[in-house]
Amino acid sequence: MPIPKQEPTAEKPALLILHAVAEYERQLGIGSLAVVLKGSKSKRVFDRKLYTSKVFGALFYHPVDVIENFIKQLIQKGFLAKADVGFQYPSPVLVLTSEGRTTLQENKDIPLEMKRTIAPLVLNDSARVTIDLFRQLKSVSVVAQQRQLAESTIWEHLIIAVKLGLLAPTEVVEPEKARLIIETNNHLQPKGLKELKTALPENISYDEIRCVLAGTINGH
């Protein structure tokens, strides 16, 4: 049975997840699919170039643990299943069941519960060093060079600091860029990260967007 070309929206997370599994069937497990849907710039996403997918960042407004619980509910309800595919993928990967394929084909929504698996944000020693250096140097690239870490790692440290209220978004991102990100995000809601990036000037990066939204979502 062919998968429909019509793509579900962020308002229908179950259909969007089924669509994502259809795209990456027998390739991703629960955790990997969740970070793709979140729009994560983690190493496992970039090493496999998963950021090129149309579903990348499609559930950006949900925490990763919520997305993982959405996926688990779809497994429990019989729309998805886990499959072992040998040494290439050491963890079980996701596949559509016949019921999942039929649901996707018919574009029927599935109600899911918002469940949290709360893991507190942790500011480890490495992140503290990054924050202290950034306060002095005001440059992600310079801090990365001095610490001999990838810029993506420095951004992750700074985003955690913003979420915890230790830094304001405008201490990390230029105020004018931050203003544009917030205004555009408010206009686009509830679209995903990829749509927001497309709507913004090219000189605004995904990391800058995530940093500003981290502060906005947490009320800082």
Which strands sit side by side, in order, in the main sheet?
A: 1-2
Number of folding domains?
2
Q: What is the annotated CATH architecture of the largest domain?
A: Orthogonal Bundle
Which CATH C-level class of the largest domain is it? Mainly Alpha
CATH H-tier superfamily of the largest domain: Winged helix-like DNA-binding domain superfamily/Winged helix DNA-binding domain
Number of helices: 12
Any low-confidence stretches, pLDDT <50, length ≥5?
none
Protein model, in words:
The protein is mainly α and 220 residues long. The chain is 54% helix and 4% strand. The protein has helices at 13-23, 30-38, 43-47, 64-76, 98-106, 125-137, 140-147, 151-163, 169-172, 175-188, 193-199, 206-217, and strands at residues 80-83, 93-96. The termini are far apart.
Describe the protein's topology:
Layout: H1 13-23, H2 30-38, H3 43-47, H4 64-76, E1 80-83, E2 93-96, H5 98-106, H6 125-137, H7 140-147, H8 151-163, H9 169-172, H10 175-188, H11 193-199, H12 206-217
Antiparallel strand pairs: 1-2
Helix pairs in contact: 1-5, 2-4, 6-7, 6-8, 7-8, 8-12, 10-12
